[in-house]
Please model this.
Amino acid sequence: MKKLIFGKCYAFCGEADHLVWLAECLALYADAGDLETQVEICISRDVSSDTPLAVNPRFHRTLQDGMLTSFPAVDVTWRWSTSGCLMVDAVFKMRDGIKHRVKKLLSMEYATDVEYFEQLLHEFVLVPSTYFFDDLAPVHASCMTVDGAAFLLAGTGGAGKSAAMLAMRRHERVGFVCDDIAVMSIAPSSRSMVYANMAWPKIYGYDCFGNELGDLILEGRGWVDRTHFRVKNWIDPAIVRRKIRPDHLYREIEPLAAPASRLYYVVREGIPDIRMSALDVSSAVEMTVAVVGAEYSIFHDHLYWEKYNALATGRRAMLTMDSVVTNWRTVLANCLASVDCYKLSVPFDLDHATYRRRMVDILMGEVAVP
Model:
């Protein structure tokens, strides 16, 4: 199976059950055909047996020809082939037993096996793989197209990025690009592009007020799943959510990339009303680096440990956070130089329904904001 993801050709292999899950998780990405593979991902059941050069701490292994990053739910080994292809081996620690069932009942999502697999694949394999390429940079943003041009809604978790996107999901001028992490690059045509990220959007209980989303995300689910959602939603809509494929949620899907037009940083501030102001490129770049640095710290820790192990053993690190951030600044500065950047300041206490309505008006250009 070969797919075009983040502008690169990814090849996937695995056992029969893995291939079934991969087919579902990757269905919306474009097929890569006979293009040369740039990233090869193998899903397996066995952790690398290579003897590590260093293990500091026990979650990170520095190998002779790469590194192993161990997370609670997946172990990922990263290597470069002699031909320059990024070789990735991922061992998923799938859930089972009574302990798993109890955790599932207490969780926010009550995720199915394929939903769980999809989240691990995107968060711990696909998005981190972009760090190894010097022409890509991630932005913690939701992204949609409006009349074919990409609008990014960036900010910290809980700022309201996904909520604004959901409010416009059925608009005929709007298409889906990504829900949580956007990947930017400069195309050969010198245009700033946002690559599609088909990670499945997370829908919270509070996103379902006054619309049909609640029925949509529970469609086809079992009675325990539906009861879990409704009880938690009654207790607190912020503590329950479900995942759903983007094509089941949005009217149009962009499977490849879209030219970047605008970047909005949604910032919660102590002000009486929504306010929009211009944001200079350097500030937008540094805000992006800061937010992504915090949001993906679980992977970034491994890059610091890789540097530590390399220094301790007198070898060269496969990848360091210093080199990654330096690259991000360069890529983002080039990408955002041709993008209109704004800060959207939003009051702390603006109610959810009003926020969604105002954001639709602003993003669709139907009202001017002071």
